[in-house]
Amino acid sequence: MSIIYMIRHAQASFGKPDYDVLSDLGKRQASILTDRFNQAGLDFDAIYAGLQLRHEQTLGAYLAGHAKTGGTVPPVHRTDAFNEYDSEKILTAMIPFLIKEEPVFEVEVKEMTQDNRSFQKVFEKVMSSWIKGTNRLAGLDTWKTYSDRVRVGIERIMDCEGAGKNVAVFTSGGPIAATVQKALNLPDQDVLKLLWQIVNTSVTRFKYSGKRLSLFGFNEFSHLELAEDSTLITYR
To answer: Can you list the domains of the chain with their CATH numbers?
Structure first.
C-alpha cells in the first residue's frame, strides 16, 4: 500500500498582472505547511509537480525547509499532467457562447471585474458549462480531455513508484478534483462541488495498491487552522 499526497499550491496573486506568483500570504501558507510536514516527520520517497510557477514556488518552500532539518530530499519529477486547466482561455472562449445563449449574462460579465463575488458568479457559470461539455470549441480542451491527462499522470505514479511509498504531488485544484473523481467514480456534474472547496496548501490523500486507487482524506488544512489566523484560509 502506498499513499499519494496531493498538495494544492499556496495562494497565488489573484487580480494582479501575473497570477502565477505566490502572494506574501501564500509564502506564509507554504512555510506553515512545510513546518507541519517536518513536525510530523513525514519524508517523501518521490515528488511530482506541475510546471506552473505557483507549483514550483510552493514546492521550493517545502524543499528548502525540509533540507534544513537534514531530511532526505527525494527525486522531483515535473510534468504538465499536474498543471491547472487554462481558466483564462476557457473564460475567453466560453463567455461569447454563453452570452449568445443567454443575452442577459452579458450584464454579469461586465460586472465581473468589480468585485470577487461577481467574478465568482461568472466563473462558476462558465466552468459549469465547460465541465458539462455543452459547448465544444475548436482548440479548447474538454474537461474529459483535461481530466484524462491528469489520470494518466496518476497512473504513471502508481506504475513507477510501486508499493510502500509516500509520494507528494504539488499541483492545483483541477488535478486534485480530477483524481478524486477518478477514485470515487463521480459524474462530471459533481466536480464543481469539489473544486470550490479546495483550500490553498490543503492536502488530499489517496491510497493505492496495484491499479486500485482510494480516497484516504480530502482537503485537509488543519495546519492553517492551528495558526489561528483566519486570513490564511484562501481558495485562489
So the answer is: 2-84+147-232 (3.40.50.1240), 87-132 (no CATH)
